[in-house]
Amino acid sequence: MVKKPIYSFILLFLSVSAAAPQQPPADAAAVSHFQQYLRINTAHPHPDYQSAVSFLKALATSIPNLRTRTLHLTTPNKPLLLVTFPGSNPSLQSILFNSHLDSVPAEPSKWFHPPFSAFKTHDGSIFARGAQDDKCIAIQYLEAIRNIIATDPGFKPMRTIHICYVPDEEIGGLDGMAKFVESNEFREMNVGFFLDEGQASTNDKYRVFYADRSPWNLVIKAEGQPGHGSRMFDNSALENLMKSVEVVSKFRENQFDLVKAGVLANSEVISANPVYLKAGIVSGDGNFVMNMQPSEAEAGYDVRLPPTVDPDLLKKRIAEEWAPATRNMSYHIVEKGPLRDYMGRPLMTVTNDSNPWWTVFKHAVEAVGGRLSKPEILASTTDARYMRVRGIPTLGFSPMKNTPILLHDHNEFLKESVFLEGIKVYESIIKALSSFDTDSP
Ligand SMILES: *[C@@H]1O[C@H](CO)[C@@H](O)[C@H](O)[C@H]1NC(C)=O
Ligand SMILES: *[C@@H]1O[C@H](CO)[C@@H](O)[C@H](O)[C@H]1NC(C)=O
Ligand SMILES: [Zn+2]
Known about the structure:
- There is one protein chain.
- The chain is of the alpha/beta class.
- The chain folds into two domains: 23-208 and 351-434, 3-Layer(aba) Sandwich (Aminopeptidase), CATH 3.40.630.10; 214-335, Alpha-Beta Plaits.
- It has eleven helices and 17 strands.
- It has helices spanning 3-19, 25-38, 49-61, 135-151, 177-180, 184-189, 237-260, 311-322, 356-367, 384-388, 416-434, and strands at residues 67-72, 79-85, 94-100, 119-120, 125-127, 161-166, 191-196, 209-212, 214-223, 227-228, 271-279, 292-293, 296-305, 329-335, 376-378, 394-396, 413-415.
- Strands 1-2-6-3-7-16 form a six-stranded mixed beta sheet.
- Helix 4 crosses helix 11.
- It starts with a helix and ends in a 7-residue tail after the last helix.
- Residues 350, 352-354 line the site of one 2-acetamido-2-deoxy-beta-D-glucopyranose.
């Protein structure tokens, strides 16, 4: 009797020390798949899409019931992989999960570990370009389905589940998602809800995005009378342009003040950042002519609009205040993305209970102990806009919490524990969304 507690203490100690370094084989395999995928260099300007698609296709085919199709919507070197888990009720709208195949380049000399090595440190941090953006979700979707089937071999989703792996997101998606949504294959999929990439969160809540900001390239031009460098006169091109630059700067400051005061998030204001100034007359030796006031000058701005603002109001402001014709100014806007959907509604997905997809999604995250922070507008742009423009409810979500935000940064990494937790979150999401049986209004 006296010995028993000691005995059980030793047993407990042994079992803990033996279990600690070991990972369930399914988890170890999932992490290994993630690392293998990260080692395929799909960074621009020469992304190896063929190897990425072959790898993902093999991984998908290793899971029972999944079908794959490779589409070539433009050139043979830009494949798009479609993975499908057929549902039992094909009359219901399907669910589409998205991950882009490409990533931005990396400068190896600025990294602790080579960016395509997927090196794992002692604390389980996996370093690689794409670890957060967005190769994690690419593998998590598949491993989640694998786990669902492993736990319940008879599992059949009611709605069909698709995963698409698209090229070229990082360079605008024109040969990727933009072409895909125009295809017959896409039309036949009858997508009801789209889940795309999100971003890491530095706290213990997951972030979720309901809109992107839309970029405009704005060029403001000023004309004026040319003259000798020594002359004083009104309304030279540069004087006219400088007046505009001041007005735009004031507007930018007011928007930024709202952010600094905590009234609005960075992504909820209009940003107007100067990106170039062009003026002056270049002489034969490549220097500027100093004794001549030029007749033309221009400034370029990167402008980003959240879907909550009225683009026509901003255009009016540009025409009246930033580049008034009365001051011999003109402007040119290149809209790099849509602001309204095909019905003329602002490009954003409703995140309250009036959108049943939102409710199901949120409850599924919470069912596995996850918490969502206040839905946000993404400061930049993703392929999600191609879905929202078709009126398809779309959320941006990558389950990475307590993680520094390192997309497009040096030393991008993801902890394996975070990666594995994300698989559990997708298991819950996939089960919930695929068994949700009423079509959205
Ligand atoms: C506009 O340009 C014309 C022609 O160069 C010039 O005469 C006029 O003063 C300019 N007006 C302003 C407001 O810049
Ligand atoms: C849900 O959000 C939309 C868009 O923000 C809003 O128009 C609507 O009134 C909200 N509905 C409910 C039930 O809160
Ligand atoms: Zn991305």
